[in-house]
Amino acid sequence: MLEQVLRRPQRLLYLMVVGMAILFLSTYFSLSSHGSEQLRAHLDALKSVALRKNGTVAVTPGPVNVTCASFMEELQTMDNIRQHAVKGFDGRLYPPTFYPTEINTMPRAKAGFVVLVRNGDLEEMRSSMRDVEDRFNRKFGYPWIFLNNEPFNEEFKAGVKKMTRSETRFGLIPKEHWSYPDFIDQDKAADTRRIMTEQRIIYGFSESYRHMCRFNSGFFFHHPLTQDLDYYWRVEPGIKLLCDIDYDPFLFMELNNIKYGFTISMHEYPLTIPTLWNVTREFVKQHPESLAKDNALHFIADDPKKGMDQEYNMCHFWSNFEIADLRFWRSKVYTSYFDFLDHNGGFFYERWGDAPVHSIAASLFLNRSEIHHFEDIGYHHPPWTHCPASVSKFHETGKCLCNPEDSADLGDFFCQWQWWRTSIEGKPDAA
Ligand SMILES: Nc1nc2c(ncn2[C@@H]2O[C@H](COP(=O)(O)OP(=O)(O)OP(=O)(O)O)[C@@H](O)[C@H]2O)c(=O)[nH]1
Ligand SMILES: [Mg+2]
After folding, report:
1. What residues line ligand 1, using a CB cutoff of 6 Å?
2. Where would you find the membrane-spanning parts of this chain (predicted)?
3. Which pTM value belongs to this model?
4. pLDDT digits over 310-328, tens only?
5. Contact of 312 with 301, CB cutoff 8 Å
6. Where are the domains of the chain?
7. CA 381 / ligand 2 centre spacing (Å)
8. Nearest ligand to the C-alpha of residue 115?
9. What is the pLDDT of residues 34-48, one digit of tens each?
């Protein structure tokens, strides 16, 4: 070998070039934490270049073709379609298949669905995903991030993966985000649960419900799997989407500088939060600069002249649906507020929900313009529904399957008119 190289020194040059190339490639993929994903992404990119050139590629098995927008433009006549048709599993000719996410070449926001869920909720979760995918995500391809206080089992992972073509992530919640902090007196917490059980307060008996509310109030936005996201959409098992969503709500948030979006608002049960408002007022007294200049206080308090010197009217955004900006929850003002509440102990000594905590924070620390009611997103979480009002925009157009008369907007229990009186958009037109 050495002799051969010495006889022809140019071979040494070839050997060095090949060696350097191998070294470069292996360093590139091993240094990156996502080496294999990057490799796959590169291969996918190469594949899509090939697709753009060739128009369509048959993927076996079955009559599945992949195509892109420019290729679609060429498919104008039956002859074109026949040319590009593919023989399917049954021997029939199939016109090219298209994936809406690929045709939609708009940039995406740094966003995803964040779901807190138990293994036992698999079927309800799959049902929620079916709606979210069909009504929205099959056109946009945002990832699903599942979080749990116990490890997800293989059945759950396989079951939800089957509901989407998008990326799925599965995260375990760190112990310190789902347990008693050392400043909490656990005997006192147990006493509260006993008293609230006697008083038949909803979820008053439940320890896990309190951990869930505390986690949703203070920690999900710190989870490592959410760190690359700016926006999230909270999805729960067993919900329904009732209207097509044909635009990207995350980009909508970004375009309009919106930090918090909701669909349904209602009153909280006062017995679950006896001291939350007083503790909040104490926080604001200590941090007056935390109040936004044009805040939405009028949503949560009835007299605009009285500022913080009045009672909380119990209105809150129903947080089982949220499209919001994670950077707001990670901000100094919100994290200081959460820490203040947490040290007060009301998540355990009372039964503070994440809905009033999020809602009070958004209403005080954000400007009105930074909060949005997604009037156009028809949504159902048992037992309540939001159905868009405008017949001409949402019902005669075939977008929605719901009855505006069933919408949880009016009636004393709900807080939609408190929002309309506060918001910049006001009440939507029913025509
Ligand atoms: N992993 C995990 N998720 C939970 C637990 N408890 C509740 N969740 C999730 O937390 C969210 C809220 O819980 P829910 O039980 O729906 O509470 P809720 O919406 O206030 O009450 P419902 O009206 O009964 O739906 C849902 O996404 C649940 O899947 C729990 O102990 N572990
Ligand atoms: Mg729920």
Report:
1. 116-118, 121, 148-149, 208, 212, 236-237, 320
2. 12-31
3. 0.85
4. 999 999 999 999 999 999 9
5. yes
6. 34-105, 111-422
7. 7
8. 1
9. 334 443 433 343 333
